[in-house]
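Worked Example 4.2. Consider the chain below.
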Amino acid sequence: MTPELKFHSIVISITTLSIFTIWTQLTGIISKHPFLSVIASAFISLGMYRIITVIFLGFFRNISCVKKWILGPYFMEGTWIGFFVGHQNNVRLYCETFEQGLSDLVIRGKAFKDDGTYHGSWVSDTTNINVKLGKLSYTYDADVIGNTAINPGLARFDLERPSREKPPFRMIGYSSDLFNPAKLKSFEEKVSDDTVFESIEAFRKAKDVYGKYKDLI
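Applying the procedure from the previous section yields the following structure tokens:
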């Protein structure tokens, strides 16, 4: 079940229960005015559905445990730390933040050289999470300091997770720029559900991740 379908199923269930509860309290009025009751029922149902949707959407956006529950195995929001091997076999350490909604995922990344200096950044809002296959794929626009133009590209990752019904915590894959299509091997690990992460701390953690997993790629 997709997060959107799960969300609306919950809202419909709560709305139905709420309407039923209201109607059981108004049985006397309904029996006396059946026609008006039908009209009133339609308006009350629509209004109740809208109110519950707004309230539950607020919970989803602002309460992390609710978002995790709704997204289930699709949940990837947070900070991911990793490294990739560049075109000249230079290792680049990076930090990505995943900002996730019911049906969208925005990825923002920034990379550093091994001495901690800034290398470049990228952003993507065209992502696809395939829970069945355990894969993440997306296109991105990369803005590297050494390039004079924005470079689009494609990234694909295999997700590591405890089970098919659990969210991923690690991934390995590659990225490939349009104007230099070599596949650059990449590895990253989730370090926080928060999307705010200091660059210095991100660089330090990325060095730790590289030291721990460099032999994998």
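The beta strands are 78-85, 91-100, 105-112, 118-130, 135-144, 151-160, 170-177, 184-192. The first helix runs from residue 3 to 24. Compare this with Example 4.1 before moving on.
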